[in-house]
Amino acid sequence: MNEILAVTLRSMQLDMAKVDRVGLNLANAQTTGYKREVVVGETFGSRVAAARHSAAASAPEHTTQVDQRPGTLRSTGQSLDVALTGPGWFEVQTERGLAYTRQGDFRLDAQGRIVTQQGQPVMGLAGEIQLPHGFPVIDPQGRVFEGTAPGGAPPAADAPPVSQLKVVQFEAGAAVEHLGQGLVAVRGEVAAAADGRTEVRQGYLENSNVSSMQEMVQLIQTLRHFESMQKAATGYDEMLGTAIRKLGDAA
């Protein structure tokens, strides 16, 4: 395929991927703890280089990254609603392995474990977190204590924590996959969140960090770029057709 047509094709495919992400972000603008997805693609120069090496028909090289900026917090007053004020993710055990979430609307299951709304165990530093009496008190460091009564009554002054919520972080540019239900999987290494940068807030939930206005601007820009690439491809095709016809007439 001609290099010019190859470059425009790859650009249009990348634009289509961006539109898909914008649609997903807008659909989750009201989802608790949702982090918007961003498509990061090739530079124009790399697309040209790929076209020159006969890679025109391949899919565009791009990755989907998560915008990890925190959302605003809203108070719920529920003892098992928790939010993070800085970078980090709660770790959750799923059937597919470890996953991560900022959607902190947890609950207790029949065994007294802290779980997500779908029943996946929320992990502590030493594994699953179990509360025998079901009166959780969670401090800003994520330590989980057993309260003395419903409603978050404080534990005894010398009471040791039952566990501590495991809060991890990963690189801003790490490739992630949304698994649904507020969970993401990470392709790469995760590490414990840095001390002092993140606090756990009991009785709060985090709003989505999606701005509908920002997504609409992104959508308009992407569609205009797609249209310009489409016009470039059409114009080049017409120019090539005219040149071939003139060469035929001359012959």
Describe this structure in words.
By secondary structure, the protein is α+β, with helices and mostly antiparallel strands. The chain folds into two domains: 3-66 and 210-250, no CATH class; 73-206, no CATH class. 29% of the residues lie in helices and 26% in strands. It is built from three helices and 19 strands. A hairpin with a 4-residue loop joins strand 11 and strand 12. Helix 1 (3-27) packs across helix 2 (44-52). Residues 83-135 form the Flagellar hook protein FlgE/F/G-like D1 domain. One of its GO terms (biological process) is bacterial-type flagellum-dependent cell motility. InterPro entries: Flagellar_FlgE/F/G (IPR020013), Flg_bb/hook_C_dom (IPR010930), FlgE/F/G-like (IPR037925), LlgE_F_G-like_D1 (IPR053967). Belongs to the flagella basal body rod proteins family.
List keywords for this structure.
alpha+beta, 3 helices, Flagellar hook-basal body protein, 251 residues, cell projection, flagellum, three-stranded antiparallel sheet, six-stranded antiparallel sheet
Question: Short description, anyone?
Answer:
With 251 residues, the chain is of the alpha+beta class. It has helices at residues 3-27, 44-52, 212-250; strands spanning 37-41, 62-66, 73-75, 82-84, 89-94, 97-101, 107-108, 114-115, 123-124, 127-128, 136-138, 143-146, 163-164, 167-169, 175-180, 183-187, 191-192, 200-202, 204-206.
